[in-house]
Amino acid sequence: MIAESIFKSEFDKNSVFLDRNLIMPSYIPDELPFREKQIEEVSRVIAPALKGQRPENLFIYGKVGTGKTSVSKHVMKKFNEFASNNKINAECYYVNCRTHNTVYKVLNKIAKDIYAEESFIGFPSTFIYEKILEYSKQQKHIIFILDEIDKVRDLDELMYNLTRANDELDKGSISVIGISNNVLFKDRLDARTKSSLCEKELVFPPYNAEELIEILKKRAKLAFKEGAISTSAISLAAAYAAKESGDARTAVLLLLKAGEIADRLSLNIVEDEQVKAAKSLVEEEIVLSLISTLPSQQKLVLYAIAKLSLDKKPIKSLIGLEQGVLFSGEIYEEYTRLAKKFKESIVSARWYREYISELEVYGLIITTNSGKGIKGQTRLIKLASDPTKIRDVLEKELFGN
Q: Could you report the per-residue pLDDT of 309-322, keeping only the tens digit for each?
């Protein structure tokens, strides 16, 4: 009876939302404001497939929430519709490499999409690869969108398989669009992989405050009832997101959470106060979501920082005892210990410093030079968020605990 009462109460409750699904970060609207140029560029790269020619590979990168996935899926949808309507042997497929993070999983996902009625579970990757090749040999020009491509553990092997396929195809072709949130990711690729994948490159810049306001206005019109959200609340959500990262996903999530808060308080309109209340909720959610997108080596570095932050005694400086402040060298030592323990390869000190710089860019850590009061010159590092929550999330991500 208690559950039934709650369900009835929630069902009867008034809501500020017209359609809550349309303000979810995962929803891709028909129009993508301020990404017309990017849509045009991606479309032009893959358009040769419609004329029976192999498109060049494309590498897209940029920060989270800059529209990379939305643009790619939008172009894919229009491409497939055009090819189908005009009976052209060209197809585009999407793979989320965070979920399908090995050569086998990627190939299996592609084969399953191509041969919808068949199952390839249990078959070796060489067999699955040959099935994909066999399909393309039917004069099919196929484009694979590999989102979060940096999550593929054996990426060099995957790219070798997909790009060498064209040497065996007389009439069909296979091309790749690789997407990464990590702007420095391509620098880590094997030279051969980089040359085969990065034939063309496209950078997605962050949105500015004015662009985010227009994006949110359009989404709010779709998702909220008329007059159920103030112009001021939309502007505030855009300002928060622009200040932090220019992340449209964060801005949209702020409106979603603000609307949920308004519903919980039985309000008829979302105002600034609800956006302010949503900010702390969203910040934590974004941080934890961002952690899940990091490469495994970077997760290990962050895990080392979280563990040391919780286990180490405060250090002494000119301003007294400081909790959670760590030396760069001791983090690298802890990272090395963890990598050995879990049988992961150990990156060089140079790449470790790159990881630290990236974690700072993402806002996950704060760094400073040691300065006076501490013996020697070193880099001091501190987590920007609760170390317990970060440790717990990383243990699930890394070890499945």
A: 998 876 554 334 46
